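Issue 218. Parser rejects a valid record. Input:
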Amino acid sequence: METPISREAIVFEDGIPPKNKLLMAVLFLKALLFLPFMKSYVKRHLPHCSRIDFVPGFMFYYGNIHARNVGFTDTFILDYAPVYIGENTAFGWNNIIITAMHDACSDFSRVVAKPVIIGKNVYITSRCVITGGVTIGDNSIIAAGSVVVNDIPPNSLAGGNPAKVIKRIETPLHGPVFPPSLE
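Output the parser choked on:
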């Protein structure tokens, strides 16, 4: 006999369970111990960046990233070609930017890298993949789980696999969408 599936919300009246509080405390302490080292490492290896914010899990390969006032969270960037990110852009969790791909027409030993350009005031939600050669216009939002393989025009909400414009954004995002913490 199968267990019925409940669609009702679970409410924790007294806050999160103690087990989860302990886990969150450990993760918080890990971040406190990790961030001072990571802050100096990022400053040394990303010379084209200023005022960026990140959490443990943020990774990049070459430091070929050009950004200012950007929140990365745990974004992974394979930056064989340059990655240009406009001001006041924020990334949700588990995003990937891949500038290089293996050439499917050859024996897969050839790698082609193309730059990625992300405009100003862009919000990349969670678990998005952005491939090389893509431009995402200013004031755009990329929906969760999207795979961006084509250009996205400015002032757009885009989503899907491959990502397509779902609708135009009439009122653009303004100002920083996160508190900058790395000067």
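Fixed in the parser; the record now loads. Confidence is low (pLDDT under 50) at residues 176-183.
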